User: Fold this.
Amino acid sequence: MPQNEYIEEHIKKHGRRLDYEEKKRKRLAREAHRSSATAQKAFGIKAKLLHARRHAEKVQLKKTLKAHDERNVKQSTKDADSSVALPTYLLDREQQKDAKALSTAVKQKRKEKAAKFAVPLPKVRGIAEDEMFKVLRTGKSKSKSWKRMVTKATFVGEGFTRKPVKLERFVRPMALRYKKANVTHPDLKATFQLPIIGVKKNPQSPMYTQLGVMTKGTVIEVNVSELGLVTTGGKAVWGKYAQVTNNPENDGCINAVLLV
Assistant:
């Protein structure tokens, strides 16, 4: 690795801060207000340059959105060569082509980014930090209270290794770790016990997502290879999302509904 990429190296080794996602979200939310304030304060040549740049950005955005909307629009083609004789059954039929403006890769990426599933539980009860974590007192006289024990069901990866005791801030008990979930397929009306691949999103907080905490309403990724699901293109589906529908810490198991 080049000498000047020490930040990337540190991120690869130790990961990001626990509040990185939250800070990033807030920074993006504030960006519109900041740019609006700058636009209102600017005057003279700076204001002209700023507005020209913003106008160009808006035009580009509209073009992209229009191209995205037109991706499946059918357009009739003009006959390129009228001298070519057509069969009788094709004379009254318009030839059509799909106006695919965006490449498949870009469409797929956008689809994943803006994927909105009709989740079984659109709203869930908020969980306070006191309910989620239990304070662990450490030190010779138990005067230090910087450690927290997670009191909810969690998922950790296959090759997970705990940090040294003096560096581990969040303790995830072995008894509350789960590797499999009872997933119900809404169309098949059948339930399967499937291995969990990872925690995609916990609606309570990005920090809980990073810790792998599974509460009611959490979207998890499960391995559906044994179900034999295939895409429209004929490829086998390996992982699919499911939403947790119960309180795992109370029931002792994870029940989820597959998002199809």
